[in-house]
Amino acid sequence: MPIEAGHSETSPVSIHDLTVAYHRKPVLWDVDLDIPEGKLVAVVGPNGAGKSTLIKAILDIVPRASGEVLLYGKPFKKQRKLVAYVPQRESVDWDFPIDALGVVLMGRYSTIGWCKPTGKKDKLLAMDALERVGMSEYAHRQINQLSGGQQQRVFLARALAQDSTIYFMDEPFASVDAATERAIIQVLSDLREKGKTVVVVHHDLQTVPEYFDHVIMLNMRVVAHGPVEDVFTNDNLKKTYGGRLTLLSEAADRLAKNKVLG
Amino acid sequence: MIANHSISDVRVDFPSLDQIVKVLLLEDYNTRVVVLGVMALGVASGIIGTFLLLRKRALTADALSHATLPGIAVAFMVAVSFGGSGKSMVWLLLGAFVFGCIGVLCILAIRHTTRLKDDAAIGIVLSVLFGLGLCLLKIATELPGGSAAGLQGFIFGKAASMVASDARTMLFVAVGVLLVTGMLRKEFTLLCFDETFSTSQGWPVIKLDMVLMAMVAIVTVIALQSVGLVLAVAMLIIPAASARYWAKSIMSILFLSAIIGCLSGWLGATVSALIPRMPTGPIIVLLCGFWFVVSFVFGTNNGIVVTQIQRAKLNRRVGMQHILRAMWEVSEENASSTFRVDEIIRLRSWKKLAVLQLLARAEKRNYVTRLPNGDWMMTTGGSIEARRVVRNHRLWETYLIHFADIAPSHVDRDADTIEHVLGKDLVERLEHLLDSSYDLQSPHPVGERA
Question: Does this complex have an ipTM over 0.95?
Fold first, then answer.
């Protein structure tokens, strides 16, 4: 597949003219950007701006209306092994009958492959991942007995157990305690040291300059993206959070309505 | 014997010891077929039902089983129109399986193309296809050439009509379910726990879902004969739901669920073999229900007895801490370790009887002694314990005022609910936070309460 002008084959995530729609209502318009390698990248924007959708579209979890996404120059299907994903904590039922170690082991499943049981080596890797988020003493605790922050750390450990190159995290900092926040920051800086690329949906604007190198400012379309010191400006923040663009959201509403009318 | 069976005949004939032994030893050929068949069914449904429950598809399975009825009627009519007897079990069950799958597909289609949610989609598909089935059944019974009388048996189940080949099918299905879930245990677990993550990992979520639901459909279809389509879903859900009250890991839930299903099947078939007129299917389902009640009352994992005992223990501890704190505060005021009961009562809005009971318990623990003049006195042990309780309370209050922005007039009540669950580690952290030189000074005037 030829690479379009302006996009590089060495970019871990290269997004071309991506549009995503739910029930035909567009939630992301024409996203077109390259994510640089080895950086911590924050995705910020107001509620409903399409932050989670961007990640889910990259990972083929939601269908794309148009456009394509290449990871190191190849489609996601061929690069799955390179990617680790931390979904939002609320996306699963924490009353599931499993312990913390069991959840982290799920990060090893695709490496283990079909029908084979988890081995000793996988357990060691999973324990190591739990250790890195400061949760090793909770390995055999049922997940419904963990606090919200601890559950978040278990999810993070599952992604670490995958030992990937590109990490996508959907709001890992959402309503966590101070210990968890510290653990996540530690993990992020470890990953950067190892040259991994990390894309994080982030809510807390104040900590963006402190935690991240790069920022994608999103409100149904990309308002700005680039190094934090260049693009994380008051002007861009106003553009991102100053309400939805009336014309864009009206057009989206109209598209959705057309579907109802047939 | 048969002549006695009528609707007005409601006697229950209790079996003799001879009969019981005969049934338990499976000496009778028919009993053997039914008992072994439903035991195998119990294992299969217990296992696949566990994943069904974890996937939150229990009601979908109910719609599936109701949707099998038109399949049975259609299969019968097709067979008759081709000159067959229409009673070939293979074709009937194949028809049931096909329509069961159609039912599930209808639910998926409604969910994806309309704004209706699962419950509505299930309600629509279940009732419409069951209604269709009843109509087709009526037409089938009036069809010349075939005798459709036995078809009614599929609705409520008719275990007595089972033959050896049916039991063999059930055993075969049970072994198949064991093999497939054994192989796909980790894949099914991931599917049930976190579908999104599973998709991102490249697992074929839709195909795995289809394998799971196909196995549910197969188990439902083989349950039709013995339990009937109205009650088939009970065999899938109840053993798994009961097992969750005893076990914490998926492996142990699978194991227990299979045991409960198997046991219910065996007992149900045995009871209905011993007592004529007791229908096998409903008896099995009732036994499943019995296990469920036992589990959710006595289960070690969130069963109500265990929960209540834990709550009662906590209440006793809270009550003891309350009385200790009250004693401390009164003696603080009096500057003496003796106090009268009415001084304690004045401090809180509690009843005299409750205070006396608490004091009696405190006396048993040697926290207080009763003086000859009717007053009470804190012992040394009591005042050490009371000091600890009061200190925790005030540490917590101070923390709330300084760090949680809670008004001093409200803080007593808030502190009250949480301090009783403060562990040693939390107290240490509080001390660290508030400087360990903390001197037991109350952050608000004691006795003046909102």
Answer: no
pLDDT digits (tens, 9 = 90+) for A129-147: 999 999 999 999 999 999 8
pLDDT value, residue B56: 94
Structurally, how many domains does chain B consist of? 2
User: Is the pLDDT at B2 greater than 50, yes or no?
Assistant: no
Chain B residues close to A59, C-beta within 8 Å: 199-200
Are B111 and B148 contained in the same domain?
A: yes
pLDDT of B1? 41
- Supply the DSSP symbol for A163: -
pTM for this entry: 0.85
Which tokens is B81 given? Answer: 């129109």
Contact by Cβ (8 Å): B131, B244: no
| Residue A179 in contact with partner chain B when CB distance is under 8 A | no
Which SS3 state, helix, strand or coil, does residue B370 take? strand
B7 is written with which tokens?
Answer: 């609707």
For chain B, the farthest-separated pair of C-alpha atoms sits apart, in whole angstroms, at 103
Quick check: A47 contacting B, CB < 8 Å? Answer: no
Does pLDDT of B87 surpass 80? no
For strand A74-75 and strand A83-86, is the pairing parallel, antiparallel, or unpaired?
A: unpaired
Same domain, B27 and B147: yes
The Cα of B245 is separated from the nearest Cα of chain A by a number of Å equal to 11
* Span A215-258, pLDDT tens digits: 999 998 999 999 999 999 888 888 888 755 556 666 666 666 66
Domains of chain A: 13-261 (3.40.50.300)
Sign of CA dihedral B200, B203, B207, B212: negative
Considering only CA atoms, which of A52, A60, A103 is closest in space to residue A216? A52
CB < 8 Å to B58, chain A: none
